Amino acid sequence: MKAIIALAVLFLPGAAWASFQDIPKSVKAEALGGAFVALADDPSSSFINPAGLVNMHSLQGSLMYGKPLYGVNDLDISEGYMALGLPLGNRAAAGLQADIYKAVGLVSEYQLGGGFGLLATPKLAVGCTASYLYHNYDIGHDPAYSGQSVFASGTSKGAVGVHLGVLMFLTPKLQFGASAINLNKPDIGLVVPDIVPRELKFGALYRLPYAELLAEVEQRDDTATKTNNWKLGVEVPLPRVALRAGVNDHALTAGFGLQLGSFGVDYAFHMLKTVSASNSGSQFLSVSYRMKSFSEVQPDKLQKHQPPDAPVIIDDY
């Protein structure tokens, strides 16, 4: 019964994390309601919009741990990622990222990939990431389920996914982003096809004097239908702190970022609208470190599309 209930929750429409869907690839993005494709300014951009890797002014790394649906009875889910961004000269950058998702006793998912971003012109950045997606049904090792025909040939499957992205810096205040995640729709099915949906994301960012507004639409190409989702987010940068909030078609989100010299801490809270069971929402926390010297060596990189009077804190987020 525990497994049946847990799987039912995991695969609720609009509330699923399994099958490489909706797994937060960035704590900052999660706090902004998922509206991140037009910003994409931290090392976790590799799996959201790889063009955003050009925003890496210096070597940056981050570690995340999260507890989705924390507090729901008989459901123990955890996830995390490790991301790294490395500038390559003045106009390019590379990224590495590893994600893990685990529903104890049910399923585990791993994703490892590397990306590349290039500032093709002062107003256009492009990027590409290739990743390996590995999916294992831990429940297949349970004696109560191991005899099921679906596990006759094993309990795991892996496939390669391809992700593309662009960023357009139209003015110092306005930029657009777009990405195609799992463009090739990799198959991780054991017996019958289990296609990881292709996700097309389109977003915009507008900078006000004291806030950044983000909007995004996403189309998920599921096997039987195309699901459209909308996302809105706002970030208010303050000295050493950034306050964030967001909303999308299935959740309310909030969070903050704290910068202490080269170290940063980001937190996000995510409350699903569609889960009525008693829970404490989803909690995500990341710690990051950034070296300092690259931005001084590359003073022209991306400054041409930063607002002239932007506070220094915007570079940190």
Mean pLDDT level: 83
- Give Rg in angstroms: 19 Å
Strand percentage, roughly?
over 45%
What is the terminal separation in angstroms? 44 Å
Going by CATH, what is the homologous superfamily?
Answer: Outer membrane protein transport protein (OMPP1/FadL/TodX)
Query: What is the helix content?
Result: under 10%
Instruction: Give the CATH class.
Output: Mainly Beta
Provide the structure class: mainly beta
Number of strands: 14
- CATH architecture designation: Beta Barrel
In sequence order, what are the helices and strands, one letter per element? Answer: HHEEEEEEEEEEEEEEHH
Number of domains: 1
Fold-level CATH name: Porin
- The side-by-side strand order for the widest beta sheet comes to 1-2-3-4-5-6-7-8-9-10-11-12-13-14
The largest sheet, given as strand count, sense and whether it forms a barrel, is: 14 strands, antiparallel, barrel
Q: Any idea what the shape is?
A: globular
Instruction: Report the total helices.
Output: 4
Poorly predicted residue ranges = 1-18, 294-317
